[in-house]
Amino acid sequence: MAFFNLFGKRNPEPEDQSKLDAAVQKTRENLLGRIGRAFLGKRSIDEDFLDELEEILITGDVGVETTIAVIDRLKEAASRQPYLNEGELQELIRQEVAGMMPVADASAIASGKPYIIMVVGVNGVGKTTTIGKLAHRFTADGLKVLLGAGDTFRAAAVDQLGTWAQRSGCDMVSLGMGADPASVAHDAVKKGVEGGYDVVIVDTAGRLHNKVGLMNELAKVKRVMQKFREDAPHEVLLVLDASTGQNAYEQAKEFTQATQVNALALTKLDGTARGGVVLGISHRFGVPVKYLGVGEGIDDLRPFDAREFVDALFGQKA
Questions:
Q1: What integer pLDDT is reported at residue 2 of this predicted model?
Q2: Is 232 helix (H, G, I), strand (E, B) or coil?
Q3: Cα(302)–Cα(72) distance, rounded to whole angstroms?
Q4: I need a labelling partner for 255 at 20 to 30 A (CA). Which of 80, 111, 264, 290 fits?
Q5: How far apart are the C-alpha atoms of 194 and 52, rounded to whole Å?
Q6: Is 192 exposed, middle or buried (0-12, 13-18, 19+ CB in 10 A)?
Q7: 241 Cβ partners below 8 Å, 6+ apart?
Q8: How many angstroms separate the CA atoms of 209 and 207, rounded?
């Protein structure tokens, strides 16, 4: 399989779409039901409806900045199409929201192997599990994958990643608990380059300490990677727990300030009514969502598609 096929979008299976629909069910019921009630009996987008919609989106964890942007776009659209029914309103919201979300830049993909991913995020968000599911996805596509166990401070983190390496059939570099994370990254990238691996995924410590310490630590990890690939890491993937609402915003703020995050993975989307954070965080920080965690199974990490997500969130076309 060609290397770049890894980053191409697979044709979605009906089962994949049904999992996404199920994962955002609580959020959809929260948002769509309230929007429908606010629009009940109306034939146009008036100020009263926009005021109610603003409250619905903010309390749905979409975020203030993103909500204001949505309202402004709807006002502009309504000036061109003042009269509409509920189905047309839903379609208008879908179009405007999907158009606000940044898209991953395919030109940033490396021209050679290995493609190096540095994964960041706090403890408890599902970072290690996301790495394991990514590894499984890549190896299932016939790619040679290497993991770097760089979260050396959390008890059992190295063992947990080792279990995922075995499950996904990939290799792992580990220096044990308490080792220097930068040394792990050094050895992993070195082995990835010399061993002809397609993808190297380096875990990092899941601590959100002071900004200076976090910045220095992540900068050190990046520097040692660049001894073997000047353009490494090609992807800094921030993993966030969608169920934490405003905490996820704060984590995104800290990590985007500390390092050059260029991709997001939102986990634990199933079972929460706070799926609106996917829209808000991506728009507010200008970072594309690349993966969504829609369940606990090894296959329940899916590539993100803005239109598919918005359709699932706000309901399919009427």
A1: 39
A2: coil
A3: 31
A4: 111
A5: 58
A6: buried
A7: 124, 125, 126, 247, 248, 266, 267, 268
A8: 6
pLDDT tens string 140-161:
999 999 999 999 888 788 999 9
Reduced to 3 states (helix: H, G, I; strand: E, B; else coil), residue 215 is helix
Q: Which residues contact 265 (CB under 8 A, 6 or more apart)?
A: 130, 237, 238, 239, 240, 289, 290, 291, 292, 293, 301
Radius of gyration for the chain, computed over Cα atoms and rounded to the nearest angstrom: 21
pLDDT digit string, tens, across residues 55-91 = 989 988 888 999 999 999 888 887 887 777 777 877 8
Query: What burial class does residue 301 get, using C-beta atoms within 10 Å of its C-beta: 0-12 exposed, 13-18 middle, 19+ buried?
Result: buried
The CA distance from 75 to 53, in Å, is 12
Distance CA 308, CA 311 (A): 5
For strand 145-148 and strand 235-241, is the pairing parallel, antiparallel, or unpaired? unpaired
Quick one: CA dihedral 265, 267, 271, 273, positive or negative? negative
The closest of 191, 190, 192, 222 to 204, measured between CA atoms, is: 222
Residue type, 41: G
Enumerate the β-bridge partners of residue 203. 119
Whether the upstream peptide bond of residue 303 has omega within 30° of 0, thus cis, is no
C-beta separation of 289 from 278 below 8 A: yes
Which amino acid belongs to residue 36?
A: G
- How many residues in the chain? 318
Question: Is the pLDDT reported for residue 109 higher than 70?
Answer: no
Do residues 291 and 260 lie in contact, with contact meaning Cβ atoms separated by under 8 Å?
no
| Residue 9 CB contacts under 8 Å (≥ 6 apart), including other chains | 303, 305
